[in-house]
Prior knowledge:
By secondary structure, the protein is of the alpha/beta class. It has helices at about 20-25, 50-55, 80-90; strands spanning about 1-5, 10-15, 30-40, 40-50, 60-65, 80, 90. Strands 1, 2, 3, 4, 5, 6 and 7 form a 7-stranded mixed beta sheet that branches. The longest helix is centred in the first third of the chain and has 8 residues, at about 20-25.
Amino acid sequence: MLLICPEHGPTAGIELSPDLAAAIDRKGRMIAWEVRYHYLDDVCLTVWVSEPFGQVHGISRALAPLPHVYSDWFEHLKIRCLACASRALTVLPISAEE
């Protein structure tokens, strides 16, 4: 997805849990979990969530099939500039074993 970042102009966006979005807005730092969804073996959706958000909603760092019906927690995700998010967040990627 594309958005217009005040700092970077037109740029790619990433969907994040609300607490991660707030950390970016206040120029803070946090650790994020990467969650990827695939369809027909292609990654088609990546979201970053915090560990507390993940625990509350039963989300784990994983590569999972794209759901037919999205969980309620998807409604809470916020979109932020990928460059700003990458600078502010330490993302724990999915390991080869996961």
